[in-house]
Amino acid sequence: MMKIKLVSIPVDNQEKALEFYTKKLNFVKKIDVPVGDGNRWLTVVSGEEQDGPELLLEPAPVNFEPTKVYQKALFDAGIPYTQFNTSNAQKEYERLIDLGVTFSVKPTEMGTVKIAVFNDTCGNHIQIVEVL
């Protein structure tokens, strides 16, 4: 049996990403280890599930040009790089708006879910999803 332990997201600046993901999204830093050339093995987890899957804030766009091209193409197309679940998309949207987060899609019902999409300030659109 396999479990999801770690997923990564490319970020153009690890320190800026850490600040956004912890201060705005209320994630918690789990691991922060230098790996050379100013890069870090830097992971965050949900504040509500600190033993759950880790999100690696990957400095790939700085170090691997194809990642930068792919990330920019997704961003320019408005396609979310990943998504996070929430129990109340409208409430989370309002909380994040109050913190200055920019949304490209306001909370919108789509069948059995309500979604919203925001800019993580590090090169990605992120979608939040509430299952209705």
TrEMBL record:
* Residue ranges occupied by any VOC domain in the UniProt entry: 3-131
Q: Which Gene3D superfamilies match?
A: 2,3-Dihydroxybiphenyl 1,2-Dioxygenase, domain 1
Q: Where is the signal peptide?
A: none
The record's listing under PROSITE patterns reads: VOC
* Residues forming coiled coils: none
Sorted alphabetically, which InterPro entries does this protein's record hold? Answer: Glyas_Bleomycin-R_OHBP_Dase, Glyas_Fos-R_dOase_dom, VOC_core
Record protein name field: Glyoxalase
Native organism is Tenacibaculum holothuriorum
